[in-house]
Structure formats: C-alpha cells, structure tokens
Write a structure and sequence with these properties.
alpha+beta, D-amino Acid Aminotransferase, Chain A, domain 1, 2 domains, 15 strands, binds 4'-deoxy-4'-aminopyridoxal-5'-phosphate
C-alpha cells in the first residue's frame, strides 16, 4: 500500500537544544503531541541558504502556540537561531524546514498541563511537492465531501498537529486520482485545499476566500496578495462558491511546499481553456523572483 518511505539517515536534526542524527531524533510514546495531536508546527522554505519569510512564519508559530495555551521553552529568537544552525548543519542551500512543538510527555489523560515541557524540534530536508509538469500544464483537483473543520470547533487558523480533517480530504483526492482537493466550509462555501490556499481569476479579478471562510492564513497567500497589489490587479477576498470555481478563467493553489501551482481541471471541468492563464503565470514569475531576493516582504 503506497510508496515506501525511507528517512534520510544523514540529516542533522535539532531536538530540544541538541543537534542529533536522524536515528537519534526521537520523541517518546507519552508525548501528548503524539497521543492527542496536541501541538503546533510550521513549514518554511529555505532559498539560497536563507529562511524565507521567517518573521511571518515565526509570528504564526507563536500565535498558534498561544492559541493552544502552550508555553514554548524557547524564545522566537532562539528558535530562529536554531533553524539557522540546522540549515548550516545540513549544508542546505534550497530546502524545507519543519518546525514542531509537541506538547510534552504526560499522563494518559488529555490534561494538557499535566505534562513536561513541549518537545521542540527542527528538521531541514529537501522537498519536491509536485512534478515539474504540473507547474507547466496545471494540476487537476476535486472538491472533497469532507468539509473543513468548523472554525468554532478547531480554527483552521491554528496550524496544529491535528491534520486528520485535511488528511481525510486528501484521501478523497488520491482516490480520485488527484493530489489536492478543495474543502468547503460548514456553510458550503469554498475554504481552502488540504494543504494549500486557493485562488481564482474571473474576468480579470483575482479572488480568494476571505479568512472568515475558515482557512489557514497562508504565508504564500499573503505574498500573492502583495504581488497582486503591486501589479494593480483588482483583488477580492470574499465568499466563493463551488460554482464560482467552475466559472473561473484561471485557478491556482498556493503553499510553502507547493509554491504557486496552476489548476487546469476541477471536478472534471476544465479551468478556462485548460491551460495556465496569464495572471497565474505572472504571479508565478513574481514569486520566483521573490525567492531570489534577500528581503522579506511580510
Ligand atoms: N492551508 C493549509 C491547510 C496548509 O496546511 C497550508 C500549509 N501547507 C496552507 C494552507 C498554505 O500556507 P503557507 O502558504 O503558509 O504554507
């Protein structure tokens, strides 16, 4: 069932203040991060040895920890230093950082405060989300039957270790022969994809679901909104229906791992003429240029 995964044994992983090889990077079975998915994380890119949009990711990480009442044993500055050490230790030029804070070991009840300090770790590895062909021709996606978590139950704004909601929708995508799926919110409006935000272009207007539709406020999403502003594209952050998706001229997804990837088919309907459109291509170029700059935008 599925592809065999073998972790790279040669990684240097930062775990609770120490740099250890893959084989020694272990968290115990009493971790509440593991037992209950009680924890938070970030996925961050490294381009040209530089942590990309570091501040925006750290702000979100700290905000997520605050939302789940987790006291981090390290300051933001210490974590950034540790991420830079991990990038160096692995000799990474272009890669991906996974920063995790998992609620520490505790009793077999969910009580989050009867635990020891959270385990914090940083993995820096290579990443290849989708095939190069998808970035040229676009990817096909579906709408999942699984709706996004109700924001009043578990806010999608919190980047928590609880990804089962997204994973169930991802399984639907895989079963349909796709790699991404659109998730609707509890009201039936478009929220986001399983691990990416979603944009459409309709009659020259760039549109994306507003954060109150119940989605993770993506760093890449915010960058795209900045590029659009600079290019003076009209932008709407609003309620978007599934039918709006079928009428779109262009569509793309955004995420740290995926970057910007065009969508050429949704629920068996071609998007526009079935090829990545001009606004999508321009924003992809703007994103690429930004990954090469040495200044953060957010
Ligand atoms: N939505 C979800 C559910 C995600 O997990 C992610 C991150 N992979 C995104 C959107 C995109 O956010 P970002 O651009 O900050 O990576």
């Amino acid at each position: 069932m599925g592809d065999e995964y073998v972790p790279n044994p040669n990684l240097k992983i930062w775990l609770n203040g120490k740099m250890v090889p893959t084989a020694e990077a272990k968290v115990g079975v009493f971790s509440h991060g593991l037992l209950y998915g009680d924890g938070v994380f970030e996925g961050i890119r490294v381009y040209n040895k530089r942590i990309f949009e570091c501040r925006a990711h750290m702000d979100r990480f700290i905000a997520s920890a605050k939302a789940i009442r987790m006291q981090l044993p390290w300051t933001a500055e210490q974590i950034v230093a540790a991420m830079n050490d991990t990038v160096k230790a692995n000799g990474t030029t272009d890669g991906y950082i996974r920063l995790v804070a998992a609620r520490g070991a505790g009793s077999l009840g969910i009580h989050p405060f009867r635990t020891v300090a959270p385990d914090v770790f940083i993995i820096c590895d290579k990443i290849a989300m989708y095939d190069a062909e998808m970035y040229e021709k676009g990817m096909k996606i579906i709408t999942a039957a699984t709706i996004r978590n109700h924001p009043a139950a578990l806010s999608p704004q919190i980047k928590s270790l609880n990804y089962l909601n997204n994973i169930l929708a991802k399984i639907e995508a895989i079963d349909a022969g796709c790699l991404e799926a659109v998730m609707l919110n509890h009201e039936g409006y478009v929220a986001e994809c399983t691990g990416d935000n979603l944009f459409i272009v309709t009659r020259g207007r760039l549109q994306t679901p507003a954060t109150h539709s119940g989605l993770l406020g993506g760093v890449t999403r915010r960058l795209v909104l900045r590029f659009a502003e600079k290019r003076q594209y009209p932008v709407d952050e609003k309620i978007i229906t599934r039918t709006d998706l079928y009428y779109a001229d262009e569509m793309f997804i955004t995420g740290t791992g995926a970057e910007i990837c065009p969508v050429n088919e949704i629920d068996k309907r071609p998007v526009g003429d079935g090829k990545p459109g001009p606004i999508t291509k321009q924003l992809m170029a703007d994103f690429k240029a930004h990954t090469r700059s040495s200044e953060d935008l957010l």
